[in-house]
Amino acid sequence: MIDNEWMAMMHDRQADWTRLLRAANAGDTRAYGLFLQAVTPVLRSVVRARGAGLPEADCEDVVQEVLLAIHLKRHTWREDEPAAPWCYAIARHKVVDAFRKRGRRIHLPVEDFAEMLPAAPEADPTEKADIETFLSHLEPRAADLVRAIGLEGKSIAETGDAMDMSEGAVRVMLHRSLKKLAALRERLIEI
Amino acid sequence: MKTEDLLEMLEKDELREPRAGQVLWRWLIPALILSALAMAGILGVRFPMEKTLMTPEIAPKFYLPLLLGVIAMPIAVKFARPLARVRLSWAWVFPAIGLLLLGYAFVTTPESQRMMDFRGKTILPCLLSIPLFSAPILVAVLTSLRQGAVIAPQRAGVAAGLAAGGLGTAIYALHCTEDSPLFYVTWYGAGIAITVIAGALLGRVLLRW
């Protein structure tokens, strides 16, 4: 049953995501973080609901692949467009692709995303891909940098100081490492 | 890798990739220069150019494909954005104009000469040259589209093929000496069709992400 409350909530999601992504484009990294935090549980719900039979750890890997795609393709969103349908389009494409690589064909109408409630918050979902494998594919300095930012939660500036690099160089190396991660995942290397 | 850790990195990565439209110029201009130089170097431009560009019955063989290319190019690039609404049905206007030209030429050409005009002397060079001069342009458009998030790779490939085929054909028209619409509508059309099919096939392969 579709009641008014539910409609209002979905409407809010549209407005919230768009507002957050616009702020993110304007340089507000906190807003970008909130955007990603809001998108993740919705993706997780869709992937689990559609991933019939796929182990939970694989599902989480798919969620991560979609997050990477949303991140690396965010320049294909225009500020006058609503952010939620854009996210759904990217996610749908990527989820279908991720399942195909794992030998499964799924039918995934884009409406699934719009109608899906976020998965209930829970303790860290397990995932299959191991960060150490990813790090082993990076050159040593990039691996150190990913460790500092991803695992230790250091800021760009702190990482730059610790590694004796300019902030600009840290940014470029982080971006390249994420592109590399997406490329490795594309080849279905489990990291 | 924990999703939390990944989000941490994504949040801090402020660099954004350039848009497909920004990348396009980087590839398109060298591609056009390459095709034009290849045409001029291998086949040679037909002089005087006014004959091609200013004679009413001959000029469409240059301006029509040029117009197709110029219209299709920005439309092809729109496929980079998942939410862009892209229509391709307008493209049928071009075969329609072609048919009108063909009909006009059929009526105004004496019956004894129709078959000669239609066959011309250069069907094969034409069918080879058009896809060849379109190829660098096609590669340029598809490479730019890879920068985007193409949801409909085959249709995007068709649009890229129309853009590349149009511009490639305009370049070839500056060399070609076949001046009857019976020839150029038919065989240029076929050359463009080959390019469009190549675009659709390549799009399916190259525009995955």
Automatic annotation (TrEMBL), chain A:
GO terms classed as biological process: DNA-templated transcription initiation
An MF annotation (GO) of this entry: DNA binding
InterPro entries: RNA_pol_sigma-70-like, RNA_pol_sigma-70_dom, RNA_pol_sigma70_r2, RNA_pol_sigma70_r4_t2, RNA_pol_sigma_r2, RNA_pol_sigma_r3/r4-like, WH-like_DNA-bd_sf
Gene3D superfamilies reported in the protein's UniProt record: 1.10.1740.10, Winged helix-like DNA-binding domain superfamily/Winged helix DNA-binding domain
Coiled-coil annotated spans: none
Pfam (any one): Sigma70_r2
Keywords: DNA-binding, Sigma factor, Transcription, Transcription regulation
Family that this chain belongs to: Belongs to the sigma-70 factor family. ECF subfamily.
NCBIfam families per the UniProt record, alphabetical: PRK12512.1, sigma70-ECF
Name of the molecule in the record: RNA polymerase sigma-70 region 2 domain-containing protein
TrEMBL record, chain B:
Domain of life: Bacteria
Keywords: Membrane, Transmembrane, Transmembrane helix
Residues in coiled coil: none
Keyword Membrane found: yes
Designated name of the protein: DUF1109 domain-containing protein
Pfam short name (any one): NrsF
Residues annotated as transmembrane: 23-42, 62-81, 88-107, 122-145, 157-175, 187-207
